[in-house]
């Protein structure tokens, strides 16, 4: 047999070496990856998480702003964001395009609905990325955000290919023009990273932006290569934390009265500007604040408007309203002699002469008559009695020339001029020196509150919106006692005489059902060159008043700059704001005229644990109105709590166990209805504002289920006849100050 000769196969050998080497490299790579978890210096787990791990944001709501009764003033609400898909890759079926096909037509139609012109929209629809390629989609900035449902529906009805909407949140102000310079506004802003944040730009929205802004949450989850959620994949949720809620001291109903009255006067007299503020003198709480011109915070639209809160940030020469505090200084120093006579008309100090507003005066008159007539020379003569240093000390006690400390930014201080004798004289009647309206309000709390001056404030409390826990709670702050209680009472009586005396300048401010005390003011307005404007319609008219006189529940300041008068006194347009707002606000607060005429009080004790029927008789004998919530027996809760002095006729709620019998809500204030709802736990739905006019379930019904009870309210404007305008006399239209 022939033996076969071995032949070495180089081809096979080379293949073996090649594939063997590849296998070795692959094996080495696998071992390395298993051991280090890295490839080319990058963590594979991280790359996988980046590719298959998804993260979705959970948007936090901005905190709400409420009035003191829980009515919403500002909140986030559902809106829509406009998006246009511009890349052809979005379209699968050419017959049903899912991208913008005709950019010119789309731009023309969208320009009819959003605040962006056609050319700018077209430019946005046709723009390219840095690499020259079309983006997948585009947006339209602020013009394409905050779109309401009505506009969204209209755009959808246009059937524009590629135009889409995404649900969004928008800051919403449901009351329109409503304390706009106080509340301010917040808008959405684009961040550098592409995210969008709602940011406060003015007012409380700006000042408390940190508290109102929430923290967005997120959801992390795993998907496959096609972005489908992997089964049994762990989902990590970080919940969003909504912003804190802010409760104001503002009363929505009183604020609404003020806004309505100011709008009417603005339309009738077309003044250069107006300011008004209302406060509770017992606490310093600001119940309403507004100015004109103003704006709608939803649209930020307003004409000839200053973007500042004039009540806080702008100083004025107050005019004769300042005489209130000159009078208080004289009474408190024992130098007020109401029946002593002085020569009115003019007063000369060194080389300067001041005059009364009618230039020639009223010959020899008493100081009381001089105050009632708003005589400038009466104040100058009083200054000699008080003493310059004493007078300046009292102005400091009243808080003039320094900030009140109100919880709002950019407060102005004003300037009390005192370097020269003539400056001290003119300051007595409110010319030369400057103050802010909020300083006048703070100082007036001392007159209304038996000498105790209260610091004004607008934030009642800040609450964690998630837990309901109060984070900040603002309490009334007493700023000292500039004058004695007896002095304050005398000042109130003299201020009331400016409305009732035949010489009084404030007759236009008389109310039919409440006694008012206050002081008018007609101040010259300084010009840029240091001189003062003079002539018809060139003054700042104002009134600083309170009611009821014996136990003031509200103080109010109103000023109107350069109204277009119609052969009438400057006090007339001011009174058209003060009178209806003060009257309706007192009624809203359940301050009944018959109660305040005698100013009788009843005292509430802590009745917890006592028998409700016995306490009911005790309270009724004391002139109070007890309401038992429950079947009677042992009292387990009450409102008001603890020891308090109440005006007779006030309501006291006593909570007991057992079935609840529905009372007659007729003429109950909104506050009392809300107190009853809270303490009873009944499903009471309140409709309207003001005083209760009707109820869906009859009084005397024993409530046995959770069916809703509807209580309808009517405003005082609807329920009461408007005031008859008092005749105006004794005030001169064109005056130097008065």
TrEMBL record:
Record-linked SUPFAM superfamilies: beta-lactamase/transpeptidase-like, Penicillin binding protein dimerisation domain, Penicillin-binding protein 2x (pbp-2x), c-terminal domain
Pathway note: Cell wall biogenesis; peptidoglycan biosynthesis
Domain annotation PASTA: ranges: 598-658
E.C. no: 3.4.16.4
CDD domains tied to this protein: PASTA_Pbp2x-like_1, PASTA_Pbp2x-like_2
Keyword Ribonucleoprotein: no
Keywords recorded for this protein, A-Z: Membrane
Subcellular location: Membrane
Protein name (database record): serine-type D-Ala-D-Ala carboxypeptidase
Organism: Lysinibacillus parviboronicapiens
């Amino acid at each position: 047999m022939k033996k076969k000769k071995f032949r070495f196969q180089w081809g096979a050998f080379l293949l073996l070496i090649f594939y063997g080497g590849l296998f070795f490299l692959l094996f080495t790579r696998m071992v390395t990856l298993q051991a280090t978890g890295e490839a080319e210096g990058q963590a594979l787990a991280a790359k996988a998480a980046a590719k298959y791990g998804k993260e979705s944001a959970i948007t936090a709501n901005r905190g709400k702003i409420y009035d003191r009764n829980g009515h919403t003033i500002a909140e986030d609400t559902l809106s829509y964001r406009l998006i246009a898909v511009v890349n052809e890759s979005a379209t699968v079926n050419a017959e049903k395009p899912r991208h913008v096909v005709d950019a010119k037509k789309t731009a023309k139609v969208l320009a009819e609905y959003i605040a962006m012109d056609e050319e700018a929209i077209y430019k946005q629809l046709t723009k390219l990325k840095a690499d020259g390629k079309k983006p997948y989609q585009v947006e339209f900035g602020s013009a394409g955000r905050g779109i309401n449902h009505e506009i969204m529906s209209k755009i959808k009805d246009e059937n524009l290919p590629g135009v889409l909407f995404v649900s969004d949140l928008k800051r919403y102000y449901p009351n329109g023009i409503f304390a706009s310079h106080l509340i301010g506004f917040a808008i959405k802003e684009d961040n550098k990273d592409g995210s969008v944040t709602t940011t406060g730009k003015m007012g409380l929205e700006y000042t408390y932006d940190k508290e109102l802004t929430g923290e967005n949450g997120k959801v992390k989850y795993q998907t496959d290569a096609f972005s489908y959620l992997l089964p049994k994949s762990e989902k990590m949720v970080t919940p969003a934390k909504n912003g804190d809620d802010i409760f104001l001291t503002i009363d929505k109903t009183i604020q609404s009265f003020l806004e309505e009255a100011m709008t009417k006067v603005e339309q009738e007299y077309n003044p250069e500007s107006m300011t008004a503020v209302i406060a509770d003198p017992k606490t310093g709480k600001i119940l309403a604040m507004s100015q004109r011109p103003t704006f709608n915070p939803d649209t930020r639209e307003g004409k000839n408007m200053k973007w500042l809160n004039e009540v806080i940030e702008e100083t004025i020469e107050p005019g004769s309203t300042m005489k209130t505090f000159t009078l208080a200084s004289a009474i408190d120093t024992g130098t007020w002699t109401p029946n002593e006579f002085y020569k009115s008309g003019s007063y000369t100090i060194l080389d300067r002469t001041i005059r009364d507003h009618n230039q020639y005066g009223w010959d020899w008159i008493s100081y009381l008559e001089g105050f009632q007539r708003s005589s400038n020379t009466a104040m100058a003569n009083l200054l000699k009695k008080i003493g310059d240093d004493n007078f300046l000390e009292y102005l400091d006690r009243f808080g003039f020339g320094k900030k009140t400390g109100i919880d709002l930014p950019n407060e102005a201080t004003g300037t009390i001029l005192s370097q020269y004798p003539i400056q001290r004289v003119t300051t007595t009647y409110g010319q030369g020196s400057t103050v802010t309206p909020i300083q006048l309000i703070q100082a007036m709390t001392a007159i209304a509150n038996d000498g105790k001056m209260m610091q004004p404030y607008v934030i009642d409390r800040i609450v964690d919106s998630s837990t309901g826990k109060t984070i900040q709670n603002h309490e009334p702050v007493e700023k000292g006692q500039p004058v004695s209680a007896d002095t304050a009472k005398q000042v109130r009586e003299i201020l009331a005489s400016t409305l009732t005396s035949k010489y009084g300048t404030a007759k236009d401010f008389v109310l039919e059902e409440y006694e008012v005390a206050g002081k008018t003011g007609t101040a010259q307005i300084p010009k840029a060159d240091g001189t003062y404007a003079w002539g018809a319609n060139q003054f700042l008219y104002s009134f600083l008043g309170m009611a009821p006189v014996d136990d003031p529940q509200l103080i109010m300041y109103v000023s109107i700059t350069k109204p277009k008068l119609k052969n009438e006194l400057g006090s007339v347009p001011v009174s058209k704001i003060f009178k209806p707002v003060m009257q309706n606000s007192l009624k809203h607060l359940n301050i009944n005229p018959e109660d305040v005429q005698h100013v009788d009080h009843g005292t509430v004790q802590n009745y917890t644990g006592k028998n409700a029927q016995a306490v009911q008789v005790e309270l009724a004998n004391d002139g109070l109105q007890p309401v038992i919530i429950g079947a009677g027996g042992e009292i387990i809760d009450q409102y008001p709590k603890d020891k308090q002095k109440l005006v007779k006729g006030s309501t006291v709620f006593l909570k007991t166990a057992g079935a609840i019998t529905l009372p007659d809500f007729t003429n109950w204030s909104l506050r009392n209805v809300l107190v009853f709802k809270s303490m009873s736990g009944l499903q009471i739905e309140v409709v309207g504002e003001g005083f209760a006019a009707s109820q869906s379930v009859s009084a005397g019904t024993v409530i046995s289920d959770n069916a809703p009870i509807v209580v309808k309210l009517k405003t005082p404007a609807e329920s009461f006849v408007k005031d008859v305008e008092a005749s105006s006399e004794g005030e001169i239209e064109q005056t130097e100050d008065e």
